[in-house]
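[step 3/7] fold_predict: job queued, chain A
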Amino acid sequence: MEQTKPKRRIPWLKLALVVSLVLNVLVIGMLWGVMTRTTQQGSLLRSSVAALPAQDRRELRRATGAILREARRQSEGSAGAPQQMLTALRAEDFDPEAFSDALRQAQDRLLRISNQMHDQLLEKVSAMSLEERHAYAASLEDRIKTRPARNAPRTRD
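[step 4/7] structure written:
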């Protein structure tokens, strides 16, 4: 009878994957929060996207999804910032610079994603004709005037 060789387990790999997943969810949550956060006047970014014509909104959401998938793909295969954070936290002597560098990497990734999303919105609006921009401005103005106040119940668009 043949005995099968037990599989070699790599516990740190599971940990790195879990930390990477948590950071990806955190980044997506932060982006979603930026887009849906309501201050006293509401989120201008959310209103700007919501004021677009339906087709442009759908295209922008697809582009945003592509940006997020590309960011996730780029982070696959390397522990990067999550592993650096864990290493810094577990070190006998805490190295604030190493921890700060790891946080900065995560922040830079978030800023790159945010800048790409900004560029997508700018590209959409730049491609509009004068009449389309006027209609967009009217729609945006309506949304700005009717944004919910802070702590008001929110509804989904």
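[step 5/7] annotate
The mean pLDDT is 77.
The chain has one domain: 12-145.
exit 0
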